[in-house]
Specification:
Blueprint: H1 2-7, E1 13-18, E2 20-33, E3 40-53, H2 54-63, E4 67-74, H3 78-89, E5 93-98, E6 105-112, E7 115-122, H4 130-140, E8 146-150, H5 160-169, E9 174-177, E10 191-192, H6 196-203, H7 210-224, E11 228-232, E12 238-241, E13 248-250, H8 264-277, H9 282-299, H10 307-313
Parallel strand pairs: 1-4, 1-8, 2-6, 4-5, 8-9, 9-10, 10-11
Antiparallel strand pairs: 2-3, 6-7, 11-12, 12-13
Length: 314
Amino acid sequence: MLKQVISNFRNINILVIGDIILDRYFYGVNIGNSPESPTPVLKISNIIEKPGGAANVAINISNLKGNVSIISLSGYDYTTKYIRNKLISNNIKCELVNVKNYSTVIKSRIISDNNQIMRLDFENKINYFQSSVVKKAKSILPNMNMLVLSDYNKGTLSSVQQIIKLARSFNIPVIVDPKGNNYDKYDGANILTPNIYEFQKAIGSICYNDNDIVYHGLNMIRKYNLSALLVTRDKHGVSLIQPDSNPLHISATQTKNVNDVVGAGDVVISTLALLLSSNINIKDSCILSNKAAGLLVSKNNYFNIELEDFINLI
């Protein structure tokens, strides 16, 4: 039954709104120290570029055969062109709002022996053209089953509260991958999926155990009128918190030989959106999404999950 539901993801329509990013990976081997300064020298053996941020969320949904559209602010540069072409080649409907004198964000990660040793960010933030984002959302949302907001705090979701209210007016559920420490802007969303670091930043406190996460999570749900909160906890799995149900702490399915969890959150929110849109209950959806993230990080290659792999998890 469940496999049949997953095989029918092609009937699900999801809109992703958020910041697109180019993820660039430099893979190398340490060959000694520099004579110029006391720093290691890496000999780069491979360079990989792939769409990241909201673009990665959209690609994961498409790989699972869901129908997906994406709205984002972008530039006129090579980076935007590259990401757009990748999105289109993945059967994703692009609704990019191009902004003059803006360069799409690039995150460059330097990796040695499967360990990320440094990240270089090239970015600027824009807080305008929001009317264009909202206008596009208004025209697309009525045909959607779910809205996913992938916030990297680069500007696309500066009017996120207006977008959430718009979605709710169409009775479209909203899942948010949040950013920053001001969650007032996400008031009225259905589900937030912060990682544990973003969650602690938002509550202004360190969580030392499951009880701390549940206590602060319930307060967050009440304060921001949420239906549920899913906290992703890296190698420790995820915690599902709901106001009228016992919390569910789900252990990570892959904990050995994992040095990085880049992309795991994108997989969680992508699979969660598809499963919930297919009327799978939230607990089972979270369990399966956690398995999907475990499959991704076990590969240590920062790529996307595929439908066949996901079906084999069940």
